[in-house]
Amino acid sequence: MSQSQSVRLGQTNSPTRFLAERVVRDQQEGELSTAVLQVRKRLLILTVIGAVDPRRAEDLTEQILNGIRANRSKLVLVDVTGVPAIDSKVANLWVFTIEVARLMGVTVIICGLSARVSQTLAQIGVDLSKITTMGDLQEGLEEAKRLLSHKVVRIGNRPPSG
Question: Which of 29, 43, 137, 148 has the fewest Cβ atoms within 10 Å of its own Cβ atom?
Fold first, then answer.
């Protein structure tokens, strides 16, 4: 577990900290599949920790797409702060997942890209204009709140046309 993860976990109460530390440890050891969590209506979060090989990337893609369909999601935050590096095959699978989600009407925001992962994405020629990124999960949550809070309002006194 990284020192920054330990510091953040240290700010929580003891039972929560214990469970969070165990989840992090199990993911790092490959004993726990990554869960797609619905944190509010139409918003899913996926936190990825540890090495991501092509097989795990395919599993994550399937989990994300199934989660989108099951929860009628409009936005998915993928926190990759805990991913030290990826290869070009994994990067291409991530881009594929983002494109498929977009076809399903969903926005995917990638949070916490490390310098090494960012370099891999740039080196393989990923069209970065198609990927929304945020520095960390907190920024991603703020952007998600902004995007999901848009309301459609009628302007003027004219009744809606039907």
Answer: 29
Residue where the block lists tokens 């009407």: 105
Please report the DSSP string for 94-159 in residue order.
HHHHHHHHHHTT-EEEEE---HHHHHHHHHTT--GGG-EEESSHHHHHHHHHHHHT------SSPP
pTM assigned to the model: 0.72
Q: Give the domains, in start order, of the chain with CATH numbers.
A: 34-135 (3.30.750.24)
Instruction: Indicate the angle between helix axes 3-10 and 14-28, nearest 10 degrees.
Output: 160
CA pair distance 79, 134, nearest whole angstrom: 9
Model pLDDT for residues 29-57, shown as the tens digit of each residue: 554 467 888 888 999 999 999 999 999 99
